[in-house]
Amino acid sequence: MRSRLTTVLGLATLLWGGGAAASEIKIGVTMGATGPGASLGVNYKNAFQLMPTTIAGIPVKYIILEDGSDPTAAAKNVRQLVTEDHVDALMGAVSVPSTTQMALIADETRTPAIALAPVALPPDKLGWVFVVPQPVPLMMGAVVDDMKKKSVKTIGYIGFSDSWGDLVLQATKKNADPAGIKIIDEERYARADTAVTGQIVKILVANPDAVVVGGSGAGAALPQIALREKGYNGPIYHNHGTVNREFIKVGGPAAEGAIAPTGPLMVAEELPDSNPIKKVAVDFDRRYEAMFGAGSRNAFAGYSYDGFLLLEAAIPKALQKAAPGTPEFRQALRDALESGQSVVGVHGVYTQTKTDHFGLDGRAVVLVSVDHGAWRLLK
Amino acid sequence: MKPRLPLLLAIAGLAAAPLLLPQYYVTLMDYVGLAGLVTLGVVLLTGVAGLTSFGQAAFVGLGAYATALVTTAFGGSPWLGLAAGLTLTAVAALFLGFITLRLSDHYLPLGTIAWGISIYFVFGNLEFLGRHTGLTGIPSLSAFDWTFDTAGRLYPVIWLVLALALLSTSNLLDSRIGRAIRALRGHTRMAAGFGVDTGRLKIVVFVYSAMLASLSGWLYAHFLRYVSPAPFGVNAGIDYLFMAVIGGSQHVWGAVVGAAVMTFLQEWLKDILPHLLGRNGNYEIIVFGLLVIMLLHRTSDGLLPFLGRMIESDKRSGRPASARLLPQRPKLTPGEPLLSIDNVTKRFGALVAVNNLSFDVRAGEIVALIGPNGAGKSTLFDLTTGMLSASAGKIRFRGANIERATAHGIAKLGIGRTFQHPNLISEMSALENAAVGAYLRGKCGWIAAGLRLDRAEEAGLLDEAAARLKRVGLGAHLHDAAGSLPLGSQRILEIARALCADPLLLLLDEPAAGLRHLEKLALAELLRDLRDEGVSILLVEHDMKFLMDLADRVVVMEFGRRIAEGAPCEIQSNPAVLDAYLGGVE
Amino acid sequence: MNLDIALWLSQDAITNGAVYALLAIALILVYTVTRIIFVPQGEFISFAALSLATLQAGETPGAVYLLIAGGVLVVALDTSGEPWDLARQRLPGRLARFVAPPLAAGALARLSVARPDALWLQILATLAIVTLMGPIVYRLAFQPIADASVLILLIVAVAVHYVLTGMGLLFFGGEGLRSKPFSLLSFKLGALNVTAQSLLIVIASLALIGALWFLFERTLYGKALHATAINRVGARLMGVSPNLSGQLSFTLAAFIAAVSGVLIAPITTVYYDTGFLISLKGFVGATIGGMASYPLAAAGSLLVGFLEAGSSFWWSAFKDPIVFTLIVPVLLWRSLSAPHSEKDDAQ
Predict the structure, then answer these.
(1) Looking at the domain assignment, is residue A271 inside a domain?
(2) Is A159 helix (H, G, I), strand (E, B) or coil?
(3) Which of B231, B271, B282 faces A71 most closely, judged by CB atoms?
(4) ipTM metric
(5) Is residue A197 part of a domain?
(6) Share of chain B above pLDDT 70, in %
(7) What share of chain C is helix, strand, coil (3-state, %, to 5)?
(8) Residues in chain A within 8 Å Cβ distance of B282
(9) Separation in Å, CA of A149 to nearest CA in chain B
(10) In chain B, is it the N or the C terminus that has fewer CB atoms within a 10 Å radius of its CB?
(11) Is residue A117 part of a domain?
């Protein structure tokens, strides 16, 4: 029945031979390296090449399946991973709907899951799901703080017409309202659109003090370029989905000055030595760029890696209670994940408890801006 | 009954699947079932009726979102969600069908692509539908004390629904309406000529297939318990079309085969392609695309024929004997005015095909229409049967004006016709082709056909068809495919089909062409017998010898005008006629 | 809304409308000659834009290898089944027609990689790569079933769209690319900042529409091409080869796509899957033109451009539904004015 070829990362499995399930920890991943989320998905996936192949001396097998950012495919993948591969933990995905689908099945099948993108579920449905990315409101909070410093009073918003565009807008609103900052214009565009002139002209007419772009990656460059071309001089804020080098590559000179929140890993070297994240992040950046080229570091690979770090910290505890491949192990793994232990990742310090499956604080956010063709800490 | 065995085995295998297969494969089979339901609609629409829709996924989405909204926002029951979804789908499909199906074939695909894209953005931008993030918290289906909350528990539900849909669709195709649906693919004129309201039928077929998609969406929503716009875009709509093409779009089982092949192949490719190409991606689409291209280069039957003929023959097995003869129209008194062509003109742009033409046909007459090629004879037939509209003039049938009536409306009045180029559904048997002619003599509708409540009527229609075929001398070929008959026999089959309509007036377009001498004699005798039974005949024919002992009157046309009229012997010596035929003697 | 805004929106509408018009006329061109509703026209545009950007990044686009492989496959298919002597005799001619040009395009691409400053060389290489794909795609996917129904041809066209999209992902990756602008020139027209690039698009579009109109309405060859669409057997009897005219129409369509791709590459970010949406908007334009009239289709495309610019200004979240809903009134009008389908069913 198992004619399937699985993606096996790590020779350890081979060395151990086809040993009993208990001698190996299986982590199932659903990932969208193609489709609408492709530009992010590739980065998410790259990070798996950096991950150790053993945890606490036990070999780890990562089974990565492609979902093309389609939640139906993601659901299929996750069911396959749970019922066919009997994975001990799940990780995924790139798009919000795919991740939500994974979270639903994780909850139903009682499999611990690390969400690598935001989940559209209320916290009480996250019993088995642990979220890595900074909650969008936390990120946009940092953006709004910067707006307050620059005495911005009004914002224009232009975002993707997809779930990401929805999330960034909600998070911006949530932070801007208490700060007395008004969103005076809301515009949408599609990643594949060839022009955003209409939307930009509308924003120019509204003439807000600042613009927030709810796009991601290279797709966020379209409004950035159009705004600068049409002579908009106010600050342009992005979100953590935009912080990669493709944005700068496509945006060219127009990208200069774009501000975005992100995790500390993007500017690890510029952090003070006292910051515990610096060591982990610098190490990750060095290894990642050694493999994928200078300047290739990005937030998404960092999420995958932090997901791994969370599991790495929890697995030894779970191993004391049960053997991998059993429901008891999965239960123990979940308990360990929400034990309140602090894990230092490349994006922040995670302290996840029974009541908080996010567990990040302000240390997880830095503001960066494009400065001479690179993302640098905003001074 | 032998071919039934593999079918029964397949059914038994499907029933036992959840007990035998690993859990994941049961999940996949659920997906196959869901896709199969949508694809069944595509088979009916595209393979059988010859219409193409890329928007089926959008109907799945309507069904899924409707129940999601009803059960989450309003706390209603899934059954209410089902009703809402089906209603919404029917309304949307009716509207889309109305604006696209009256146009030529390529507007439906274009219209449905636009619809598929629009609905995706509409789902994704409406606040109460959860925008692009979608709706969560949809309950599982439950009935009595059962809750269908896992893939294994939902499996019987999905496959039972699919089995019922397969059965009723297959019943439907094996009925009066089924024959009319099959005629839609390339034979709409013929179907209309026997009383099928083809415009309406196309819309009904489209709505039916949309409802199947909506039903699948309802199951989908309660299976995944989460809906978001992504699975309902145009690409998903294309996938369903591909499933039908790959499986075999001519047969209901092609839907299941196509859905299964594509679902499992996709899983398999997802594992194997990254190793071949060295990276991940949905490269399956390359393979599916190539597969579809290569299949269509060879056949339009898909993979089904390769799986053996398990289902080839379930038709015409054990047909019940007819209970009664079909009622016939009351016969007319000979000499009563029947058809009157009154100053009729038909222009195509600058060309005048029929020019101010007038003549009459009375009950109990055989009137022949002769004239050189291009004289406007076939155009006149089309005008009389409502397939063309006259530019000027009046056409009356038994006193009623019919020059503005629809073709199917005129068929109801009792005019039956044959076509100059045989217009038969070549893969259907002679018997079924003839039975198309009896369309108006049955009454059972979609529901009766789907539930097989139409058997007595169906037997009557087929008996009528068989009797007519025997009468015209095709009794030995009842079950031969119409396309396999020689051209002469096809013309005779056309006459049998027209007779099945129990016409008062029979329009025959060159019935004797391609017949051998003895066959012509037999045909002439048949036509005389029909006249004696009270059927009037208007025929176009070139063979004057054939007409000589047959026709009561001959009307001669040239350049759309009547140049002579009279008994055959008078016509033969008419100088104007000789001039027209021989090009004048200088 | 004041005059400046209207001007800005109009400029955008005209630029985009011109791109859609190029698409629409290519679609009509292909449809009238071959009866194929050529969905993958958009992929040719993405291929052109992405090839140009890839060349500028100093790499040889993978599309070149696809092109060469396609050419070899064509020759192999044409040759198979022929007696050896005949095949050997015809081989040089076939190689010259289907393999040599792709190889030349490949050489051109290599050359332009070596000379990163020569924009004209990059453009030439891009035009060559994409234009040559046209006849090869026709020969491989459509020629064997050229007599099939419009419906079957459409399904094959969609399958080709799938294949090319997948290939695009394979060659160019999932990330969007943008090429360098041809010219940074721009001038003030009132409040309007007109860029040379957008002017170029409009001029190219007008020139191509004019050339096509001339070809089909004023030359014998164009009329012969058109005749194939109406009656393949008749055209063959009159000495017009349907295979040749099919390949020719695809070559023209691919060339138009290549030009559009090169023109839009510097003004927008193009992804491997951008083409589909652009080509659908071209379809809306072509549908307005009844899949037959070039001027009507061009006008329709311009209307799409204006509608898109307007809706992106007023109600951007629903921009695409609004644009695609445009075909509803068009279809409704055609449906109500068209003769009833029972009377209009070509045999």
Answers:
(1) no
(2) strand
(3) B231
(4) 0.87
(5) yes
(6) 93
(7) 80, 5, 20
(8) 34-35, 66, 68
(9) 32
(10) C
(11) yes
pLDDT for residue A335 is more than 90: yes
Domain boundary among A212, A246, A262: A262
Is B280 in contact with A31 (Cβ distance < 8 A)? Answer: yes
The three-state secondary structure class of B445 is coil
Identify the domain containing residue A224 by its residue range: 137-262
| DSSP E strand boundaries for B175-291 | 226-227
Given CB atoms, is B297 within the 8 Å cutoff of chain C?
yes
How high does pLDDT run on average in chain A? 86
What tokens were used for A58? Answer: 């036990």
As a whole number, the mean pLDDT across chain B is: 84
Between residues 131 and 170 of chain A, which touch chain B (CB distance below 8 Å)?
161-167
Choose, out of B133, B138, B147, B234, the residue to mutate when testing the contact with A (most A CBs < 10 Å): B133
The verdict on A10 and A94 lying in the same domain is yes
CA distance B275 to B13: 33
Is C57 touching A (CB cutoff 8 A)?
no
Query: Where does B467-586 show beta strands of DSSP type E?
Result: 505-509, 536-540, 553-558, 561-566
CB contact under 8 A, C313 and A201: yes
- Inform me whether the pLDDT recorded for B586 exceeds 50: no
Q: Given CB atoms, is A75 within the 8 Å cutoff of chain B?
A: yes
In this structure, the answer to whether residues A195 and A310 fall within a common structural domain is no
Half-sphere exposure of residue B153: CA atoms within 13 angstroms, side-chain side? 12
Cα–Cα dist B174/A202, whole Å = 59
User: What is the C-alpha to C-alpha distance for residues B531 and B538, in angstroms, rounded to an integer?
Assistant: 11
Express each pLDDT in A58-71 by its tens digit: 899 999 888 877 88
Give pLDDT, residue B216.
95
Whether A74 is covered by a domain: the verdict is yes
Q: At what angle do helices A276-292 and A38-46 cross, to 10 degrees?
A: 100
Tell me if chain A has a CB within 8 Å of the CB of C306: no
Nearest to B280 among A66, A72, A96 (CB): A66
Q: Residue A235 sits in a domain of what CATH number? A: 3.40.50.2300
**C216 has a pLDDT exceeding 80:** no
Mean pLDDT of B201-209: 92
Same domain, A253 and A323: no
A296 and A216 part of one domain: no
Residues A43-61: pLDDT tens digits? 888 899 889 888 888 899 9
Residues A129 and A8 in one domain: yes
Cβ-based contacts of A35 with chain C (< 8 Å): 174
Q: Which residue, A377, A197, A210, is CA-closest to A278? A: A377
The pLDDT assigned to A34 comes to 65
Stated pTM of the model = 0.84
* Residues A244 and A311 both lie in one domain: no
Q: Residue B285: closest CA among chain C residues belongs to which residue? A: C162
| Residues of chain A above pLDDT 70, percent | 92
Rounded Cα distance, C248 and B351, in Å:
33
B127 in reach of chain A (CB within 8 A):
no
pLDDT digits (tens, 9 = 90+) for B302-334: 777 776 554 444 444 445 455 556 788 888 888
Confidence at residue B164, expressed as pLDDT on a 0 to 100 scale: 92
How many separate domains does chain A show?
Answer: 2
C43 at A interface, C-beta within 8 A: no
Estimate the crossing angle of helix B176-183 against helix B455-472, to 10 degrees: 60
CB contact under 8 A, C343 and B407: yes
Q: Decide if B275 and A5 are in contact by the 8 Å CB cutoff.
A: yes
Tell me how close the Cα of C268 comes to any Cα of chain A, in angstroms: 5
State which residue of chain C sits closest to A37, comparing Cα positions: C174
C-proximal residues of B, 385-404, CB under 8 Å? 386-389
Amino acid, single-letter form, for residue B251 = H
Tell me: do A156 and A208 sit in the same domain. Answer: yes
To the nearest whole Å, the CA of A176 is away from the closest chain B CA by 20
The CATH code belonging to domain C3-339 is 1.10.3470
- Is there a contact between B230 and A166 if contact means CB atoms under 8 Å apart? no
Would you state the pLDDT for residue A28?
92
Residues A121, A152 within the same domain:
no
Least confident of A74-78, B316-320, C63-67: B316-320
**Test the A interface: residue of B21, B24, B225 with most A CBs within 10 Å:** B24
